[in-house]
Specification:
The radius of gyration is 21 Å and the shape is globular. Helix 1 links the parallel strand 1 and strand 2. The two termini are 14 Å apart. The model has no long low-confidence stretch (mean pLDDT 93). The protein has 2 domains: 157 residues, Glycogen Phosphorylase B (Rossmann fold); 169 residues, Rossmann fold (3-Layer(aba) Sandwich). By secondary structure, it is of the alpha/beta class. It is built from 14 helices and 13 strands. A 7-stranded parallel sheet has the order 3-2-1-4-5-6-7, sandwiched between helices. The chain has a 6-stranded parallel sheet with strand order 10-9-8-11-12-13, with helices on both faces.
Length: 364
């Protein structure tokens, strides 16, 4: 295909493994679709993003740089992840909608890539969202709940249900994670339970209950490994649980996507609040339990016919311990991995939809 100038908007440059994995997947798709594309990423840390991904990057809050990048672009990609929701912050949602609006105003192709939409609490923002999305060129969402929300909102554009773009990534080499575990003296002769948590409302209450689960798992002979999906926030979240035993390990460093996926691949099971920790476990075929704090966790689990083990607001440490023991001692349902493989195929459809979008423009 003809050389394209592409701008990517998302929550990049903040050491969040899920979002960086999303960018990795999008870039892989673009480089398969276009011949030598010129790619600019809007980033919270432009230097780090440019070095890590081999792209041009502009500061997230440099209006002149963003306007210039969009003006000279052919295509704006907004994605992926949960950009268009106002639970985390209504200001961030207005930010992403503003960038989409600028792309529309400049008459660029605008593609929403594998997004999870909602919740949107404020009526005024729902009205803005409806108006803006009725002017984009194509929308792919990662779950049926997002599609249903947009349809009820009155978005008339074609909406494709695919899957989280990260599911299109290939599994990582297990040796990467083994080296990290050896560095921190995690024994090989004990089963390992990975835990991926983040700060959330009421942390004191649910963290105390999680601590009960961790202590019981260690006494039962398991090693517990806290894996930071966002550095350093997740390291601090794990440390805030308090003093834990000799076989509880908090990995302290900032890891690449392949390293995180490999670490999770070396676990015998995973307890995860972080969506993309669950997705990495799925890709590495590691049994996992989801801890819900946001609808996106429930929505992903529903795609593979699973439910959360608990939520942060209704956590029982004893029950979570028992559920984890059952997870580690019972054979995992092979149908779960079949469903994950199906989702991977759906995630790859994002590329085909993008190709068709570009092809239509070239033919016109």
């Amino acid at each position: 295909m003809a050389k394209y100038n592409i701008v990517i908007s998302g929550y990049y440059g903040f050491n969040n493994a899920g979002d960086e994995a999303m960018l990795t997947a999008i870039l892989q798709a673009l480089r398969k679709t276009f011949d030598d594309p010129e790619i600019t990423v809007i980033s919270g840390n432009p230097g780090a993003t440019a070095r890590a991904f081999g792209v041009r990057a502009v500061p997230r809050f440099s209006i002149s740089s963003i306007l210039s990048a969009l003006f000279h672009s052919d295509l704006l990609i907004s994605g992926g992840g949960s950009l268009l929701q106002d639970v985390t912050s209504w200001k961030s949602m207005i930010y992403y909608l503003t960038i989409i609006t600028i792309g529309v105003f400049f008459r660029k192709q605008v593609f929403l890539y594998s997004q999870g939409i909602g919740p949107v609490r404020y009526r005024a923002i729902r009205i803005i969202l409806k108006h803006v999305l009725n002017h984009v060129d194509a929308i792919t969402v990662r779950d049926k709940e997002s599609k249903g929300f947009l349809q009820r909102l009155g978005v008339k554009r074609k909406i494709y249900t695919t899957a989280d773009a990260v599911l299109s990534l290939s599994p990582a080499d297990l040796s990467l994670g083994k080296k990290i575990l050896q560095k921190y003296h995690v024994p090989e002769d004990r089963k390992k339970v990975g835990i991926a948590i983040r700060y959330w409302d009421g942390a004191g209450s649910w963290m105390e209950k999680l601590k009960i689960c961790v202590e019981k798992l260690e006494k039962a002979g398991y090693s517990i490994v806290f894996i930071p999906m966002q550095h350093p926030e997740d390291v601090k979240a794990a440390q805030s649980i308090g003093a834990l035993g000799d076989h509880v390990y908090i990995l302290p460093d900032d890891y690449s996507i392949d390293e995180l996926m490999s670490l999770i691949g070396n676990m015998d099971g995973l307890l995860g609040m972080r969506l993309h920790a669950l997705i990495f476990a799925s890709l590495m075929h590691v049994p996992f339990l989801g801890i819900s704090y946001d609808p996106k966790i429930d929505n992903f689990l529903a795609l593979i016919d699973r439910k959360p083990a608990c939520s942060v607001s209704h956590m029982d440490g004893e029950k979570l311990y028992n559920d984890t023991c059952n997870l580690l001692t019972s054979p995992h349902d092979p149908e779960t991995w079949d469903r994950v493989d199906d989702l991977r195929k759906q995630a790859l459809q994002n590329v085909e939809i993008l190709k068709n979008l570009v092809k239509q423009k070239e033919e016109n």
